[in-house]
């Protein structure tokens, strides 16, 4: 086939993880497809970062519950990634002549798609995970990678010392070269945590993926296997310190907290940034209507909502109904949820299409109770009381 | 639906000069995030029309920027879909046409190439969510030469603005029709929408151009009323008129009524009004914002008070500002402690801190696009 041109750098986005710590939000959808920040899905941030960083070829590796994710991504037109050469490609596991397999680990998922990488013959491959909320210019990191003549560059953020043992931790020398990497160490030697964002020079990536595939007992994981193997062999591996906004939304608490970052007079996660637009797929909607009895304070509200109740310090997604006399406070209220008259919801995540009937009471004050979660499509009956910290997965 | 759609982006009746100085009527913003063309295109698409020609005359830059390839309406097709028909004056002589007949004559090849049996012609001077399928079936069954469209619920039409009125008998046949500024007792206001057999229309156009006729309504349709079967179909949908600024403001504010909003924006009717998407952030409300009875689009930052108003995308209303009974268009900024009442701000207007501006329901205060006050 005649090649139109080659790409300098393509991205491979790992979107197949189950996200079990985010259940029940991930009961039916892959974590990257979980709605976030009123109008977005988690994967929009990584995809928009790619496009804003001039990376126009993205392979999205899917595995767990891909239906909604595939629908959502479509041909990539929402991110201007519907290109004739390059653009967005969905890469599911497949059967081949010599059998086939599910993606066994992050490294194996990329290994199974080496053919896709070869088609674009890039010099560099950017590996991303589709489950973080951040705005990052990968092109700056790529420049560093090239300047360092690196084989692999790993993006890191500085985390508080007490949290460091939850992450993969890098120890570097003065030039930024990684001398040691430890996955979730008990006694961390530094506070530079891996963001799960890697740039590899393509030939080295291929070499180590093939080796890893043939290593007995390997978990086929970048953090656990591939990166340690490259370090052992003395490859040129550098860290790239990223100082902007970055959140892992792997747990219900961290998901709630990252949503709250869009609030405030000067939000930590600034979404109205014309210089770094987060694009998303639009479904049909209308402007929101705020009724005569509505009262909205420090909240964001999505399209098609009809709100005649009260919202305080909350993130309201699209198509939400909050009736007169109902109140939500410190809440994440997801698409299509309905809060009926007189219901009171505090410090909770209300998943898609859940209904809180009249005068029900859900959750408790943020200051002294745990996060409450009402799963998608669940109805909390009239006058029902849901104690703080409960995860409700059946109608009550 | 076996019909090709023709939309006239310019119109020849309405008196909405303030809003159409730099855009065609079809591109006039409405209801927080739409343009008038969205209603026409969505009605056609929702009724099964898949081949649409959009006839533009002048000032069409903002219209084309809005419809682009027609992707939002699924009209970016390999076969048929949306065809933009900018001025192309061969049959109409040297000058750019200024009536519908000449516009159609100039785009004769579009009509000739179409494969559909019927043509649905309309302009974008009214807003409504109309089931055109019912209208189409009525036309086919009645075997009329031409069928017009009217509603008994035309809202906010103004006296003294030119319009087409007709007397319609109990079978739906038009017995009298005129272009007038005063609608006679018992007459219906036709909303400039016509269904006709495509080949018949082509014959009529050729004949009319040969006879040097100037106006489709005045010289062709009205004289035919006595001799031929010309019908009118009554839609149950509400129609919002946009005759002048006063009517424009009233029609926007009428959407604050639940029933009007459900009817016009198609809530639960399965007839969504689609529009160009924009990757706006969700609308953010400040600690001291107050809201009441308002329609608000996405991408806004509301820190002040908004009451009985329609707010478009990307609008910023700063602390202490009070906006009442107003329409604020895309990306405008209302400064701190500004008071607005019965105002219409066009796109990108900046009202600096502390200004007090007020019109009245019969005389809205209007700010031109990009102005700074």
Question: What's the short version?
Answer:
Chain A has eight helices and 31 strands. Chain A is an alpha/beta fold and 396 residues long.
Whole-angstrom Rg of chain B: 21 Å
The CATH superfamily label of the largest domain in chain B reads Spore Coat Polysaccharide Biosynthesis Protein SpsA, Chain A
Biggest sheet features of chain A: 10 strands, parallel
Shape of chain B: globular
Strand content of chain B: 25-35%
Number of strands of chain A: 31
Number of strands of chain B: 30
SSE inventory with pairings:
The complex is a heterodimer of chains A (396) and B (373).
Chain A: E1 9-14, E2 35-36, E3 40-41, H1 42-52, E4 57-61, H2 66-73, E5 87-91, E6 95-96, E7 99-100, H3 106-111, H4 114-120, E8 124-129, E9 132-134, H5 138-147, E10 152-158, E11 168-172, E12 178-183, E13 192-201, H6 202-213, H7 222-232, E14 237-241, E15 246-248, H8 252-260, E16 288-290, E17 295-297, E18 299-301, E19 306-307, E20 310-312, E21 315-316, E22 321-322, E23 327-333, E24 338-339, E25 344-350, E26 355-356, E27 361-362, E28 372-374, E29 379-380, E30 385-386, E31 391-392
Parallel strand pairs in A: 1-4, 1-8, 4-5, 10-14, 16-19, 17-20, 18-21, 19-22, 20-23, 21-23, 22-24, 23-25, 24-26, 25-27, 25-28, 26-29, 27-30, 28-31
Antiparallel strand pairs in A: 2-3, 6-7, 8-13, 9-15, 10-13, 11-12, 11-13
Chain B: E1 3-8, H1 17-20, E2 29-30, E3 34-35, H2 36-46, E4 51-55, H3 61-67, E5 81-85, H4 100-106, H5 108-113, E6 118-123, E7 126-128, H6 132-142, E8 146-151, E9 154-155, E10 163-168, E11 174-180, E12 188-190, E13 193-197, H7 198-210, H8 216-224, E14 230-235, E15 239-241, H9 245-254, H10 258-265, E16 283-285, E17 290-292, E18 294-296, E19 301-302, E20 305-307, E21 310-311, E22 316-317, E23 322-324, E24 327-328, E25 333-334, E26 339-341, E27 343-345, E28 350-351, E29 356-358, E30 365-367
